Amino acid sequence: MYSKLIVSLAEHPQYFDDVMEWCYREFWEGPRTDSFELKEFLSEHLKKNRIPCSLVALCDGRPVGSVHLMEREHDSNPFFPCLSGLYVLPGYRKLGFGSMLIENALERARINGFSNVYLAADESITYYVSRGWTVIAPNEQSELYIISRPGRMSFFPTNPNILH
């Protein structure tokens, strides 16, 4: 049996390089991007108890996955906060780490005063829908769909005065 734990990157910055490598390789790398931009972006996730934040899945003390909770995922997505960049190392998939990361991100959003979390999904839409997310709108700017979880649909945070 594995020892599974989800931790905040802000409280465990020793995993920053692992998270940065996964993000760059899986989501960020391209002809017009560089790792400096990503490092700057992820550095904002090192502030404790705030959004944006990054969560890291640990298996027996080893980092095996991450997810990010952000104010916006895409400029064309008016909903927030957004779940983004869910990644689990291939050898650790189907062991529950993805679900644990998502649930911890949802709890982090609730603690910060948000009743819903959103994301823009493409081919991964079935993964999220099978876990209780609801499609609320096609994204007019791309082939993505905006999906929401949990609870009632709300276009605004429950407390708009909370600072992120």
Automatic annotation (TrEMBL):
Molecular function in Gene Ontology: acyltransferase activity, transferring groups other than amino-acyl groups
SUPFAM superfamilies per the UniProt record, alphabetical: Acyl-CoA N-acyltransferases (Nat) (SSF55729)
UniProt keyword terms in alphabetical order: Acyltransferase, Transferase
Domain called N-acetyltransferase: residue spans: 5-158
Broad class of enzyme this protein falls into: transferase
Matches recorded under Pfam families: Acetyltransf_1
Entry-linked InterPro entries: Acyl_CoA_acyltransferase, GNAT_dom
EC code: 2.3.1.-
RNA-binding found in the keyword field: no
Protein name: GNAT family N-acetyltransferase
Species annotation: Limnobaculum eriocheiris
